[in-house]
Amino acid sequence: MAKRITIRPAEGKWSVRAGGAVLGESSAALELDEEGHAPVIYFPRGDLAMAFLEPSEKSSHCPWKGDARWFSIVTKSTTIPDAAWSYESPVDGAGEIAGHVAFHESDQVTVERI
């Protein structure tokens, strides 16, 4: 059975924090739900402090979303490698996430509804 994805507006206001810094807050985030995975929040780039994100060497490919560009998070206190990704030109069926960034949650990166 092929995997499927669902993209919808994320309810409420969302925040992403890392290394003691607020990287962004958004009321226009998207929630991507992919079979077999936990839902992921995608933040519009315009709602993020993109100065904290430095392009990394990592790349990946998903047949249902396309080629992902990865970023490291750089704050005053730390650098968190390969902690965020973006689909610059998603495949058909995932176009809504173009211009958005998602974050790998960890003990250093928090994505939460506020």
TrEMBL record:
Top-level division of the source organism's lineage: Bacteria
Record-linked Pfam families: NTP_transf_9 (PF04248)
Domain (DUF427): residue spans on this chain: 15-105
InterPro entries: DUF427, DUF427_sf
Protein name: DUF427 domain-containing protein
